[in-house]
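Session log. Operator J.P. requested a structure for one protein chain; no other inputs attached. Running the standard single-chain path with token output.
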Amino acid sequence: MVTGGEPCMYDLTKITSLLKLNGFTVWLETSGAYPIKGNFDWICLSPKKFKKPLEENLANADELKVVVFNKSDFKWAEENAALTKKECKLFLQPEFDSFKKVMPLMIDYVKQNQQWRIGLQTHKVIDVP
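Structure written below.
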């Protein structure tokens, strides 16, 4: 998996082509705010409100993960989901510090909008920076 701060600030074509040439499956996790340059088998977008994802990146996303801080984030999630392909997997993740407040809202939302699933920011749950 290619991830990190923001991997798409760089042209990843050479390294992803080399990985694929050597038999690796290459996944990307990005905010989607920068053009995606590389050869990927799976693209996961986790958009940030302060720097919106590019529409072409949303259109190519295989997975969309939206972090929910408050109730207004459901609208943000839907706006982004509307620009993805039909088969894109949709996930809502509670912001860790707002977990107890947001999780009941997310459960109710997903019950009424079954195209969404609930995910967790596992690295925060297990305390990995």
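Operator note: The chain is about 35% helix and 20% strand.
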